[in-house]
Design a protein that fits this description.
Elements (H helix, E strand, L loop, with lengths): L2 H10 L3 H7 L11 E2 L6 E9 L6 H9 L4 E10 L7 H10 L3 E8 L2 H7 L3 E3 L1 E2 L11 E2 L3 E3 L2 E3 L4 E5 L2 E5 L4 H23 L4 H4 L3 H6 L4
Parallel strand pairs: 2-3, 3-4, 4-5, 4-6
Antiparallel strand pairs: 1-5, 2-7, 2-10, 8-9, 10-11
C-alpha cells in the first residue's frame, strides 16, 4: 500500500464533521448534499466536471478521463428538475473504477444505484431526462455545493454530508482530526463519569454572565 493510499484509508476512518472542524471549519458542502444511501462512505480524489443544467454530455466525457479511485465532482448548478445521472452512468463509472459521485444537482434510478452499492451524494432526485448538447469543462476548478473543488482534492462523504480537503493539506487535516478525536475521547470519558458538559467545556462563566445559575 502506498503512502497516499494509507493517508486516504486513515482519513476514511474519520467522520466528515470531525474533518470539517479539524481543518478550521472549512470544506463542508451545503447541507442539502446527502447520500442516497445513508450507510455509505466514500473517499477519493476529485475528477471535476463543469456542466450546464439539464445536460450531461460533459459527464459522459469525464468518464473517459477517469482513473481508478476518482470521485466524480459535478457542478450541475444546483438544478433539480432533471436527473443527469442514472443507472447506466453508474455502471459505466464502476467499470472505470470511479468510487463515487458528488453532484450539485439531482440523479435518478435511485433504487438501482442502491442495489449496485455505488456512493452517490446529491441534492435530490428527479425522474426527468437531460440533453447531451452543451459544452462544458473537465478537470478544472469548480464550485460544487458552495465549495471550491480542484482536480485532485480529497473528497470525503458519509451520512452527514461531504467535506473537501485541499490536496496539499491532507496530512495536516489528518493530524488535526486525530488530535480532535483524542480530545473528544477524553470528553466522553468525563461524561461517562458524571461530569456535566458545562463543567467540561468551562461554560459556567458564560452562563453566569447571562444571568443563569
Amino acid at each position: 500500500m502506498t503512502s497516499q493510499e494509507t493517508l486516504l484509508q486513515q482519513l476514511n476512518a474519520l467522520g466528515t464533521a470531525t474533518i470539517h472542524e479539524a481543518q478550521g471549519q472549512i470544506g463542508a458542502m451545503d447541507h442539502e448534499m446527502k447520500p442516497i444511501d445513508p450507510t455509505c462512505r466514500m473517499i477519493g480524489r476529485a475528477l471535476t466536471v463543469d456542466t450546464r443544467p439539464d445536460d450531461n454530455l460533459m459527464i459522459h466525457y469525464a468518464l473517459t478521463k477517469a482513473r481508478p479511485g476518482d470521485v466524480l465532482v459535478v457542478d450541475a448548478k444546483g438544478f433539480l428538475e432533471a436527473g443527469p445521472w442514472g443507472d447506466l452512468l453508474t455502471l459505466a463509472a464502476m467499470k472505470r473504477g470511479i468510487v463515487g459521485l458528488v453532484i450539485d444537482g439531482a440523479v435518478r434510478d435511485a433504487n438501482t444505484i442502491l442495489e449496485l452499492g455505488f456512493p452517490v451524494f446529491c441534492k435530490g432526485l428527479s425522474i426527468k431526462g437531460t440533453n447531451k448538447e452543451q459544452a462544458g469543462k473537465v478537470n478544472v476548478p469548480v464550485i460544487c455545493a458552495g465549495v471550491n473543488v480542484r482536480p485532485g482534492d480529497i473528497i470525503v462523504g458519509d451520512r452527514d454530508g461531504v467535506v473537501v480537503i485541499k490536496s496539499e493539506d491532507a496530512q495536516s487535516a489528518l493530524d488535526s482530526a486525530n488530535a480532535r478525536e483524542a480530545k473528544e475521547d477524553g470528553i466522553r470519558t468525563k461524561i461517562e463519569s458524571g461530569i456535566s458538559t458545562v463543567e467540561i467545556l468551562g461554560l459556567g462563566p458564560k452562563l453566569t454572565a447571562l444571568g443563569l445559575e
